[in-house]
Amino acid sequence: MGSAATTEAEIAAELMKAMTRLRARLRSESAPEEMRWTWSQINTLARVVAEGSTTISALAAAEHVRRQSMAETLSALRADGLVTASQDPTDRRKTLIHATTEGRALVETMPAAREAWLEAALRTQLEADERKTLLKAAALMNRIADSTP
Is the whole-model pTM more than 0.85? Predict the structure, then answer.
């Protein structure tokens, strides 16, 4: 094997490939009516549900996208009645984004098919020690996602 930089590049390439394939597979495990939203729209909606009222800027920072991109994502969610916006009562210059009842219900039901498939795959395709390794890898991936250059 080459230098540490080459090894890191190879790891990065393999990780990207694996994440792309797994994401595509998880999408295919969703019910057809759930497919009208993009992955980023669903992730954003889930974040709004989990965090409560938040701003576009905070969502953009959390999802590592530009504010304009987040505004487009939220516009689509708003058009489908999944989120609403209101003026921040403490700072009228800010707009707060809230999940609607429909948005919360969607977030609660959407993962079921994906999670069922993933749980079955973990149970049937991996040994116990491999599942532990994957759990550690998930923590590392979250740490990488939260890092700043």
Answer: no
